[in-house]
Amino acid sequence: MPCKGSRAKAKNFTCRLTSAASSNSSKHGQKTNRQRKPDNYLNKQIEYSCVNQKFSFIVFFMAVLCFAFLQGCSMHGPSITSQDRNYQDMAVAMQDTSFCDKMEDWRYNESCYYYVAEAKQDPLICDKIKDWALKDSCYSAVARAKQDAFICDEIQSQEEKDSCHSNITRAKQGLLLCEKLADQREKGSCYAGIAMAKQDISICDKIPGQEYKDYCYREVAVAKQDLSICEKIQTQESKDWCYGVMAKTDPSICDKIQDRIEKDSCYSTVALVKNDPSICDRIQTQQLKDSCHAGFP
């Protein structure tokens, strides 16, 4: 029988041994039992070797899969807790990093610094971030918001630094440059950068694609602290986020949020900011309500 496949030299050698053993058996068909015994023993050893190779390959393959699975689990990690989320929302709403410092998970603690730095347009807050990639992104976000190219020079990654300078150059050259961009994502980012810098929502209207347009409205609304701009947002998730940040000390704004979890988180944030535990009673999600009350002595 011909040998199929060419996966490994060992397997080919095994196949040649099998062919040689079969040929030798056909030429000397009248061998005694004593003579056939070594041939049978050799064939069984060869078969055992093939099976053992296949088994080893399967074990190795399963080990790789298990390792990849465990690595994936460790990379994603646990999601943000409701308490940490409340602190983050309060930090952004009040533009106060002291709320970030109260968060238990250091990964979200650094993300909190990023959001506050962008909202406050303060590059010094980026210095608190230890993760260099997130710190670079923070400098880039603040530089774009302030239209200050000098902040780009704080970025370590050359690629990120070049992108930062490029975005600011485009914004300073004006809307005509944005209109010339063929890539829709780049065009939307260009318009959004100018709109945020000038706090002009009319520029957001030029953005193709609702997702980027809503992002532009959201950022300008927060920059101007203008609740009415949130109404222009079409994507419900972005609109809820806009209301949540703008609520600050007014729980009635939380009433506008459609998503139940986002609304309850908004109530919890306002309750902590106002130091008013009675607002926690508006929360319907029991776990979030308990967490809200637990924040008061």
Protein architecture, described:
With 297 residues, the protein is mainly alpha-helical. Among the domains are: 82-90 and 98-173; 177-234, no CATH class; 246-297, no CATH class. Helices cover 71% and strands 0% of the residues. Helix 6 packs parallel to helix 7, helix 13 (236-247) runs parallel beside helix 15 (260-274) and helix 15 (260-274) packs parallel to helix 16 (286-294). The protein is globular and about 55 Å long. The termini are far apart.
How are the SSEs placed, and which strands pair?
Elements: H1 9-27, H2 33-76, H3 82-94, H4 106-120, H5 123-126, H6 132-146, H7 158-173, H8 175-180, H9 184-198, H10 201-204, H11 210-224, H12 227-230, H13 236-247, H14 251-254, H15 260-274, H16 286-294
Helix pairs in contact: 1-2, 3-4, 3-13, 3-15, 4-6, 6-7, 7-9, 9-11, 11-13, 13-15, 15-16
Helix percentage: over 70%
The H-and-E topology, N to C, reads as: HHHHHHHHHHHHHHHH
DSSP strand count: 0
Percent range for β-strand residues:
under 5%
Radius of gyration, in Å, reads 32 Å
Q: What's the average pLDDT?
A: 77
